[in-house]
Every structure is written in structure tokens, then in C-alpha cells.
């Protein structure tokens, strides 16, 4: 269908964007790449929004190297993340995730900050944030704050962002020497949302396992992580299937999702060990 | 509040190399602006939620879904549609390969398919057939079964890389 918008204003810089949001009487909606928001507007899932277009704010785009972390601007596009040498060297999980996200034309405009703020539990980047133990940086009318990824995603399409706040950047720890980061997912067709997806990060401090498409938010599989730390892959698979509570829908039953989650964990462990490509 | 948020936006842009000025309603898609305001009906409006690829056009050098971008966002943009790409002869070889290989039947998907394929070809080299399929995976064709489209794109990649001669005699 055709999009329904209440109004539009293009922000010149971040402080202008904050002013625009503040003047929207609570109906402001931040427009970044628009690849989820405009689709939602087209389907009339979102109507009458006062759009604050931040897509031209170059200050919110790009990847910078810090001491032990990478700082990724919220407006960095998927296509840029997939090609960025710092990302490929220090957070390869994100580059891998890009290959699974929709199609080239979507990746040309979609942004990582937009994907996180949208908080689709079937999307790759939110789950990646959990597995990487990322920090989300937020600008509000009362200043900046930062929140751990696990506290950011609250419910289906709901985050800890307030109405007067804009997600500005993400920091992820740089991968250690020998760290493995793996993403495995099953989708019926290339570019479809995954039936289930799984991120595995194997660090010297322990294993991180996160899943997408198994609930109303991306989730960390704490029990499976503990058992992987103990070297018990079979136990981790059993624990993973027990600790997730996936939905049944037209794409897959809950039982099938549980089943393939375990298979994806085995594949991810094998890939992390270099046993499969 | 709401003079700050306008319901009509003035934009200046170039379309197929020509300067365009327009006042657009804020909810209007780029694809509807091109088709209804400018009469450029080559790219098609179809699924209107970014899935089918029929509205794929080129904005600032990249393939973009015309149904997932608002015309209000076009200020300063450089837009190319199949009309401009055809008139400039910049994808003539690709269009000839589509015809030669019967890579279209009804033609509904073809303008978007050509923009998507050209983006891949512009990266240079001869992509694997799996890479061609992956790059075109966001463009639905309900007639051809894709095989002929992949053939055509692969043929042009080889031609441009100098691996085979073009089937057409050039003047």
C-alpha cells in the first residue's frame, strides 16, 4: 500500500534532530535508512508519524578504532559494514551477518542503528549485539547514556529507547587473537528472515551464544554457554533446546525451531573449530 | 507543532541527468513520484514493501527500492531509471543479452532486474553463477525461472572481461 506519514523534517545535525523529536509531541519517529520503517508505513502498521530524517547526519556514520573496541556509527549502512576492513578484522560476525540480511538494494540503504532500534527479533544485528556483548550509545534530551545490549532489547519491536532519544552508536569489543565468531542460520530462500539463526562467539573468557527468530527478542542461551565453557557440546545442545521457547507460525513449528537450533549450534561449534567452512 | 513538520516538501534533484524541482507529499514513494509526476513508468510499483524488486532504481550510484524511499528524501539525489540507462546506451550490452537469451517474457521485472544486474557487473570480474543468483535474489521474475537471466548476466560479464566476443556486430 501507500505510506501514511503525518509530517517530515530533515535534521541538519544531531542537536537539530533532538529539537525536532522534542517538538513532535510524542509522535516523532526517527527515519534512518527506512528499510523497515517505510515498509511498516506502507503496510499501515505505523501511521501519522512525524518523521525526523537523520539519514544525512554524516557524524553518525562510519567505523572508528578505539583501544579495545570498535565504535560503529548508527547510520553506517549494512553494505558499508560488510566491506569495512576494521569490521572484517575485529568483528567479523557483523560482516558475516550482512550477507544474510535481505538483498543488495536493502543493504544499500539499511543502517545498523536502524536495525537495532527497530528490534525485530528475526533480524541478525540484534542477536549479534548480544553475542558480541556490545554497548549501545544513546543521545537524549538530558545527555548521553549507554546500555548493554542485553538490557536494550525489551520486547517485540521494543527497546529501552525513550521517545526523546536517538541511538547514535554501538561499541563492540575487538576480537582477541584466536577468537572465533560464527553465524549460522536456516532460511527458506536467500534474503528471507531466518527460521532460526544462531551466533557463536568463542573467546578466552568463555562462549557466547545468541539466537534470532526464537521469541519476542533476541536471546542469549546462558545454559548452553555454560556447558560449552565446560566442553560439553552434547549437553549444550540439549540445554539450548530446553531453554528457548520459540513460537509456532506459518514458517515453522516451535518443535522444528527447537530442533534446528540444536543443529545450528553443532554446526557453529564445528565451524568455530575449523571442521566445516 | 507542525509547521516544523511539513506535509509537502520541496526537492531539487537530477533524474537521468536532467535537473528536476518538485513539491512532493511526505508519504509519496520515490517510485510513485517517478511514475506519476515525471511519467517515468519503466520501473514498476508492485509489492510496495521491498520484497519483489520491480521498483529497483539507481540512487546516488546504488540500487535502491523505489517503494522503500520517500520522494521527500530525494533532495540533492542523482537518480537513474531504466529510461535514462537505455537512452545513454550504458547497459546496451546487457539489454541485448537479455533479448538474445530470452531472459524476459512479460517484462514486468526487467527494469528492476537490469538495474540490479548492472550493479553487480559494475563491480568488475566474472562473478560465479551462485553470486549472480545471490545478487538478483531480491528481484522476483515469475516467468523465466531465472536460468536465462543468469545466463545473460554471465555472458555480459564475460564479454566485458574480454573472454568472449559480443554476439552482435557493432558499427
Task: Tell me what the structure shows.
The complex is a heterodimer of chains A (277) and B (171). Helix content of chain A is 35%, strand content 26%. With 277 residues, chain A is an alpha+beta fold. Chain B is an alpha+beta fold and 171 residues long. Chain B is built from six helices and five strands; from the N terminus they run ββαβββααααα. Chain B has a five-stranded mixed beta sheet. In chain B, a hairpin with a 2-residue loop joins strand 1 (8-15) and strand 2. The model of chain B has no long low-confidence stretch (mean pLDDT 94). Classes of the chains: A alpha+beta (277), B alpha+beta (171). The interface between A and B is large, with 37 and 37 residues.
Number of domains of chain B: 2
- Tally the structural domains of chain A: 3
Helix content of chain A: 25-40%
Sequence of strands across the biggest β-sheet of chain B: 2-1-5-3-4
Question: Spans of chain B with pLDDT under 50 lasting ≥5 residues?
Answer: none
The name of the CATH architecture of the largest domain in chain B is Roll
CATH class of the largest domain in chain A: Alpha Beta
CATH fold description of the largest domain in chain A: Uridine Diphospho-n-acetylenolpyruvylglucosamine Reductase, domain 3
